[in-house]
Structures are given as C-alpha cells and as structure tokens.
Write a structure and sequence with these properties.
This protein is of the alpha/beta class. The chain has one domain (about 5-240): Rossmann fold. Helices cover about 40% and strands about 20% of the residues. The protein contains ten helices and eight strands. The protein has helices at about 40-45, 45-50, 50-55, 80-105, 120-130, 165-170, 170-175, 180-185, 200-215, 230-240; strands spanning about 5-10, 15-20, 25-30, 60-65, 110-115, 135-140, 190-195, 220-225. An eight-stranded mixed β-sheet has the order 1-2-4-3-5-6-7-8, sandwiched between helices. Strand 1 (about 5-10) and strand 2 (about 15-20) form a beta hairpin. The radius of gyration is 17 Å and the shape is globular. The two termini are about 15 Å apart. The model has no long low-confidence stretch (mean pLDDT about 95).
Length: about 240
C-alpha cells in the first residue's frame, strides 16, 4: 500500500501541520480523527488496514489530517470565542490547503469526509457548510451540537454563544438554512450516519436525521446494537460504509 507523509507550515494556522496519505487512486476520503487522536490515528486503530483491499485496488485514497482538538474545542485555557475562531482557522486550512492538495494529487471526482466522535462533528460541519465540495459524508458516533451536555460530555463553550458557534454547529444552522442552491447541494450528497443504540449521542443523531428529512435530504442512519462508541465498532462501520 502506498503511504505518504506530508508536512508544511500552514498559512491559515501559523503552525506546522502533518498528514498521512494512503493509496494511489480512487475516491478521496478526508479523514478526521477523534478528540485525542492525531493524523496517524486511523493507521493505529487498524481502520486503514480494514480498508486495505479498497485502497490497494485503487478504489479509495485516504487523507488523514490532524484534528487540533486541544487548540479548538478542548482548549480549556482559551476563551470560548477564541476556541471557535481557531476552529474557523482550521476550516480555512482544510478548504485552502488540504482540499487543493487532494485535488492536485488525485483528480477523481468523488471527495468524501469521514470522522469518528469529534471527528464526525468536524466532518459534518465542513460538509454541511460547503456541500458543493463533497459527494459523501460518513460520520460515526458524532455529537452535532457541542453546546449540549450529554452524560460526561459537557458544553464545550461553557455557556458562551455567538454567530460563529451557530454557523459551525449543524443542529443549529440547518433548521434556518433556506438557500435553494445550498439545500439542493445537500440533496445531492450521499450521507451515512452510524451510532450505537446505547451511545451517548444517539439523540443527537436522531435529531440530525430529522432535520435532514425536513429538508428533503436523503441519508442513512444506522443504529448498531449496544455501545458503538469504540474503535472495534468503527472498524466494522468503516468496512461497510466508507
């Protein structure tokens, strides 16, 4: 399997950023790690291995990025306004640096975003905000409203709220989305959500599913038995849905 490591100084983030590429051709998958994960997480969790047949056959190419959770949503020492601004800078890095690199390396017309846990939020926020750039979203065990307290998962903005939080939070901005062009772009997407029946974010996923139904956006919500917020479940999901 072709494996390529890249590192450069990001103008958007003013820091070095790293990523790993797996595969030589096929549909391009932008892979977001979990809260505590890094660009090498999907290799460590053997999700890359689970997808090896598709990768080696040239059907799939993975671009695994850093998630910057400790500089954004989990940066407890920063004011919440700074956390969401840093996330917005991370989005600019993806839009203006990573996606162009992906297109330069691989001209395939299918680009998807894939994420687990916090990575599912990041993938969904990016795709729903810029649906014309993607063909598919695959999100496992995601929480799509980071302001809600769920079990041991707290409000990541500590009660603070502003327009940046609104416009980056799928469960907040989707109800008010009326732009015909953007809604039609959403309707062209292949959207796959997967979560466990005992997962803390099950209600979040059902709420997102209801919002998508209300916009006429076709999608698939797969509810797995038990608690699926774990690597072994994500490996199985990846083999089925990516």
């Amino acid at each position: 399997m072709w494996r390529d490591y890249r590192r450069w100084r990001s103008p958007a983030l003013q820091r070095d950023m790293e990523l790993l590429i797996f595969g030589h051709a096929g549909a391009k998958a932008l892979m977001f790690p979990t809260r505590d994960g890094h660009f090498w997480e999907y290799e460590k969790l053997n999700i890359v291995g689970r997808l090896a047949d598709k990768i080696e056959a040239g059907h799939l190419q993975l671009f695994c990025v850093e998630g910057l959770a400790q500089e954004t949503f989990y940066a407890a020492g920063r004011h919440p306004a700074e956390r969401i601004r840093r996330h917005a800078a991370f989005e600019r890095y993806l839009l203006h640096e990573v996606l162009p690199l992906m297109s330069w390396i691989n001209p395939h017309d299918c680009t998807m975003a894939v994420g687990c846990s916090l990575g599912a939020f990041q993938a969904a926020s990016l795709v729903f905000r810029h649906p014309h750039l993607f063909r598919k979203l695959v999100a496992f065990s995601g929480r799509y409203d980071l302001t809600l307290k769920v079990e041991c998962f707290g409000d990541l903005f500590d009660g603070y709220y502003d327009d940046d939080i609104y416009f980056h939070t799928p469960l907040h901005f989707l109800p008010g989305l009326t732009c015909p062009w953007q809604v039609e772009s959403l309707r062209r997407l292949d959207i796959v959500l997967a979560v466990g029946s005992e997962d803390p974010f099950l209600d979040n996923n059902r709420r997102l599913s209801d919002l998508l139904h209300g916009k006429g956006v076709c999608h698939h919500l797969h509810v797995w038995n038990g608690r699926a917020h774990r690597a072994s479940a994500w490996r199985g999901m990846a083999g089925l849905y990516v």
